[in-house]
Amino acid sequence: MDFSEMIYQDWAGLARTLIVGTVGYVFMVFALRISGNRTLAKLNAFDLAVSVAFGSVFASMLLSEGVALVEGILAISLLCFLQFLLAYFSVRSNKFASLVRSEPVILVRRGKIQPQAIYEARLTKRELFAIARSHGHHDLKDIDLIILESDGGFSVISKKKGEDQSDDEESDDDDNPLPTQS
Predict the structure, then answer these.
(1) Cβ atoms 50, 158 nearer than 8 A
(2) How far is Cα 95 from Cα 68, in angstroms, rounded to an integer?
(3) 102-133 pLDDT, tens per residue?
(4) What is the rounded distance in angstroms from the CA atom of residue 108 to the CA atom of residue 73?
(5) DSSP 8-state class, residue 65
(6) Which of 24, 78, 159, 170 could form a disulfide with 163 if both were Cys (CB 3.0 to 4.6 A apart)?
(7) At 78, is the secondary structure helix, strand, or coil?
(8) How many CA atoms lie less than 13 Å away from 157 in the CB half-sphere?
């Protein structure tokens, strides 16, 4: 095994990396500006996939001699175009939008865990409690809603001060107060 090739192969490879890297980077910044903020917003699984694919194409362009600069530019352009088409049809068709977009899911309502929702979201009670704690809550009774948003983030909405903290349903001691991690 020739260890010297791991560190340096030749000047042509270095020149290629500098040229392709610079031109590819400038093009990618240009493509991201044209495709809009949505591409980086990670609003849904497709937005995330495009962001990851951009990085993958750029890395392949930069490091693989088998991928020419024009091929990489074409691949990034194709991703931008497909992202545009997806957004275009999502805005114009609710049916299409429902196929490619996930809807927010209410995990906690009025301080009560929604068991079916956390099951379908593949979350545990411990993870839910951690989400509540990370938003400064020590008791689910203080929370009006915890929502799993379509981008994978969580929204925690506190109950308003003075809002009735009791509920008609029997309280489940297993749910409140939130356990701390040990």
Answers:
(1) no
(2) 39
(3) 788 999 999 899 999 989 889 999 998 999 99
(4) 45
(5) T
(6) 159
(7) helix
(8) 14
Q: What are phi and psi of 146, to 5 degrees?
A: -120, 125
Q: Cα(first)–Cα(last) distance of the chain, in Å? A: 49
Q: Length of the chain, please?
A: 182
pTM for this one?
0.62
Domain range annotation of the chain? 4-99, 103-182
103-182 CATH choice from 3.90.550.10, 3.30.240.20, 1.10.3720.10, 3.40.50.2300: 3.30.240.20
- With the CA atoms of 146, 152, 153 and 156 taken in that order, what torsion angle do they form, in degrees rounded to the nearest 10? 0
Sheet with 112-113, strands from edge to edge, namely 112-113, 105-109, 143-148, 154-158
- DSSP letter assigned to residue 171: P
DSSP 103-151: PPEEEEETTEE-HHHHHHTT--HHHHHHHHHHTT-S-GGGEEEEEE-TT
Where helices occur in 36-124 by DSSP H, the ranges are 38-41, 45-63, 69-92, 94-100, 115-120
DSSP 8-state class, residue 161: T
List the structure tokens of 118: 């956390």
pLDDT in tens, 125-155: 999 899 999 998 888 888 999 999 877 889 9
